[in-house]
Design brief:
homodimer; 615 residues; OB fold (Dihydrolipoamide Acetyltransferase, E2P); BirA Bifunctional Protein, domain 2; 3 domains; 8-stranded mixed sheet; 5-stranded mixed β-barrel; 16 strands; 38% helix; asparagine--tRNA ligase (chains A, B); ligase activity (chains A, B); EC 6.1.1.22 (chains A, B)
Chain lengths: 615, 615
């Protein structure tokens, strides 16, 4: 339903009757979204003859001499004031504008054609603007007559316009079936083309990354945003229709998921700087104090030798003791500040050690162990020092947890979920996918269709190792051995070359996976699984959680995690424990799979990687 | 569609045909969700005679003597091992169990009835358990025979069970139409009732707050979670169907929204402790160093006096200089560490000053100014020292932004949104609302219906002040004057007493609202609006944003916000500016409005307020 399926409803309508639906106005302003014109199956032809209000940003604009046969409407007062004579002149003569640009001078009446007695007689021209309002990938051509306003004001890319006019069939055969003959210009938000950083027609994704606040105005970025939007809605739809409850897990937690990798602590990150500073500071202080102690000792020796009065000696001795104590204190603190971490937090805002959640899954288990099937969809955090093009500090994840469910149930659910996303993105975003296909990755649609069409291959980790061992043609970097971590290279070989479709690898060696996964009877493997897709790599990680109190307590102890910190987590096993399984899907990875984008920073509105400069 | 409307589909089916749909099994395990039995219009009667697998947690359990006429099935081996003789005895004799409890002794054969030659001959009993799996508010009664396992293992509240059996019509007229006669117990997750903190039948919401990881097992908390889930889905549905694009805004930002209130900084919170520690440390060091300098000076004087060799004097002088430098350095740092804040961040994880976003709206404007209608739905943060029962450090918000839209458009959209939420919660969560009505707030359903049924009143702030001024009966704490902030008391008076329905108050005094709101021609007011609901108070805050570059630049300057920090924000006005408006809705406030809960900590899965102790 909704935005995307407006399109399919229209298509539906077309197939059923030759009558086209009427203009669909945006509910919260009088304007018509371009999607409801250009996204129609008839490309908007059915709306020709309608008077419409549209808004958008200029993608490109040309000025041309007014066609001879066009009807001239009576000149209306320009909506924008403060226009100089030269601006009017320049706006009405494209060739003159070009010359002026070259000369970088403005307003040169000597160059203007004809006489300049009184106000310049305008040479009629029209602007052909391709505008876009972000509602779809297509631009609408709008035609503005020069009598309305100096066209120079609206021609630069990035200019915003709100215009009213008549929708007409395009006279010259072109890309689009309809165009808008503007009758009223209601708003112009101008752009100084010399200053606007996105003036150029083609700009790389890498260049655009430097302008996160402006880049959604460029088609590839807007298209990714719409695809991401559609995938997000489909994700909610999948879980809603399968009876899951959406739960919002905390971002700020007192559970340090160190067991999973590095975390962003409220303090652990920023304190590093402080630690360093302090260490330098203390080292310097210590140096001075040690010298002072040495001198004090010498002085005492001197006092003793010189048989000074006892009082002086006593003072000197007390002084020395004080210095010694301080030195001891500083020395004690030198190697590490870790012991103090606990107490430092007593003064932070929350009165305890807090972190940004990197795995919401542990918290989600609480809700699974009461509402039975739950999911989280929101931001998660990590502080890995990975390549910034592959890893974000802040990313959106879908975390799923099912009670009364074993490994296979979670695998089935994850597989269904990915297939559902493939079907729905093909249905809801055909035009954006077409754009990605043309501009980013010519294999993207084929890849989505393939994932959506047949069940995934399923192999155990042990089987995967066997296959890799047998391989003779392809040489892997590391020796293949049971127990090793499968690298991207291995996974890619299995999914791209061997199976040529998504694969589920399950039953991993215990030590390669997190502590909370269920230990198999062989005591060597755990009930974990990953889903690997061709090209995209690992899309899903999941598994069955350890529900047995003794086993999970042992794991927590072995890792030295601090039983009191995980006491609440163990409670779930102490009281009414159930078998439960789940999985985690990274939204950015799905966007990469769908669009073919190689850099994760292009999949999220405001990327946050280590050292990135966002706004 | 989906989970909630499964119910309405069933109802629909019932109305159309007398045939009831078949058992609806949960797709990712063989069990049947209780909702698809007890949520049916016929209360599950149509499923009587079906063999079902259900799972859940025991809400309450009773043991009774087995009815005489019941068919005795052949004893099966118990699924759970390690059961002592006394446990079996105790499980089979309720009276004995009570006595045992009083004596707090276990296994006292002398008290057991009958002879104990060989294994004890069991006195047949049955357990009547009310179990719940979180899928709906209703509990299913399951009946377990004592030959299957010692009933003491499954009777305590909180025990998890996975059982298979036959669904039967309830023989004794009671709350529910059907019950499950268990044939197989597949899993038991036991509970030590003496240790389980939620053993008591009735527990206050305040008590439950101490157990955020276990409390969703209690009906009120689970009910709130389902209501929250339903509201979240409806929110997405509303924006999707109106053509909005869901955008995920950053949590970690470099934009310190200090202009809005306090923010959670990555460093600003935790560094405080360090600052204090350092100050103490440095003060101590400085003391020692100053003494050292004094001594060095004395020594130099002595050396000079004693005409020592030049070399010794030079060394002593260098030594003194070093100590002086360090002292100077320490002194310089003493009064404040604020100057260093900037440089400290250069070594933090992101290489710059970072904050947790408190208002995502500024970022959202970037996407509105390119995709035209966008919304964010996710966590936001604040560090206000407000009452913890009314304010969370971490809360979920819906932020909406519309381009080419003025104040009225945003007001219309917000009003429609709230009305939509009311309609859909009534449709999708009838049983949970019924529970809230009975247990929390007997006016909640009436309130929701009222909001959903008629347009909101609309008054300007100036009109609101006039009304308050004219009021003679009610005495307000503060004197009513134009320019004052409307307090909860004023707002409540207007919505509850004067209008008796939700009101939109708009055009607020400039100084009472954020800097980015559009200044009206009177230069005194801004295009802001709030929506106030009876009982709940302020649900929405919004307004039209200042799109004029000069005006917004002036506001940024006046507030001393640092133009370079807001440069990106000003860019939106520099290049292709458009009129745009938006609003913000707190999900927790909506949950409070819907459920009638008074404490915000009960509306969110894991509340995070200042000094709260969550897990």
């Amino acid at each position: 339903m909704g935005s995307e399926s407006t399109l399919s409803t229209v298509n539906e309508g077309l197939r059923q009757t030759p009558l086209m639906p009427a203009v669909e106005r945006f509910k919260y302003s009088n304007r018509v979204l371009l999607r409801s014109i250009l996204g129609r199956a008839d490309g908007g032809i059915g709306l020709a003859g309608e008077k419409l209000l549209v808004g958008g940003w200029v993608k490109s604009g040309d000025e041309k001499k007014k066609p001879e046969n066009s009807v001239t409407l009576p000149p209306a007062p320009p909506v924008v004031k403060d226009v100089t004579c030269s601006e009017i002149l320049i706006s009405r003569l494209p060739i003159l504008r070009s010359i002026m640009k070259i000369l970088t001078g403005v307003g040169c009446p000597a160059l203007s054609p004809g006489k300049l007695d009184g106000p310049a007689k305008p040479v009629p021209t029209v602007a052909y603007l391709r505008i876009n309002d972000g509602s779809c990938v297509f631009n609408l051509q709008v035609i503005v007559d020069s009598y309305m306003l100096p066209l120079s004001q609206i021609l630069p890319a990035g200019t915003s316009v709100l215009v009213e006019g008549m929708l007409e069939r395009t006279k010259v055969a072109g890309k689009h079936a309809v165009e808008l003959k503007v009758e009223k210009v209601l708003h112009v938000g101008s752009v100084d083309a010399n200053k606007y950083p996105l003036s150029k027609r083609t700009l790389s994704m890498a260049f655009l990354r430097a302008y996160p606040h402006l880049r959604p105005r460029r088609t590839p970025v807007a298209s990714v945003a719409r695809i991401r939007n559609s995938l997000s809605h489909s994700a909610h739809q999948f879980f809603l229709s399968n009876g899951f409850v959406n739960v919002h897990m905390p971002i700020i937690t007192t559970t340090n998921s160190r067991a999973h990798g590095k975390v962003l602590g409220f303090a652990s990150t920023s304190n590093k700087a402080y630690d360093n500073l302090r260490n330098v500071q203390e080292a310097k202080s210590l140096e001075v104090i040690r010298t002072a102690i040495k001198e004090k000792n010498e002085r005492i020796e001197e006092l003793k030798r010189s048989n000074s009065n006892k009082e002086s000696l006593l003072i000197a001795l007390q002084d020395l003791q004080k210095a010694n104590e301080l030195a001891l204190q500083l020395e004690h603190q030198q190697p590490s500040t870790s012991r103090k971490t606990k107490e430092d937090f007593s003064e932070n805002f929350f009165g305890e050690e807090t972190y940004l959640s990197s795995y919401v899954q542990l918290h989600l288990e609480c809700y699974a162990c009461s509402l039975s099937c739950v999911y989280y969809f929101g931001p998660t955090f990590q502080a890995e020092d990975a390549l910034s093009s592959k890893s974000l500090a802040e990313s959106w994840k879908i975390e799923v947890e099912l009670a009364f469910a074993e490994l296979e149930d979670a695998m089935n659910c994850a597989e269904d979920f990915l297939m559902y996303l493939c079907h729905s993105i093909l249905e809801h975003c055909p035009h954006d996918l077409q754009f990605m296909y043309k501009r980013i990755d010519s294999k993207c649609i084929e890849r989505i269709k393939s994932m959506g069409s047949s069940p995934f291959a399923r192999i155990t980790y042990t089987e995967a190792i066997e296959i890799l061992k047998k391989e003779t043609v392809k040489k892997f970097e590391d020796k293949i051995e049971w127990g090793m971590n499968l690298s991207r290279e291995h996974e890619s070989f299995l999914a791209d070359a061997v199976y040529q479709r998504p694969i589920i690898i399950y039953d991993y060696p215990k030590d390669s996976k997190p502590f909370y996964l269920r230990i198999r009877d062989d005591a060597k493997t755990v009930s974990a699984f990953d889903i690997i897709a061709p090209k995209a790599g690992r899309l899903v990680q999941g598994g069955q959680k350890e529900e047995r109190l003794e086993k999970i307590t042992e794991s927590v102890r072995k890792l030295g995690l601090g039983e009191e910190d995980y006491d609440w987590y163990l409670d779930l096993r102490r009281y009414g424990t159930v078998k439960h399984s789940g999985f985690s899907v990274g939204l950015e990875e799905i966007v990469m799979f769908v669009t073919g984008l190689d850099d994760i920073r292009d999949t999220i509105p405001f990327p946050r990687t280590r050292g990135s400069t966002d706004t």
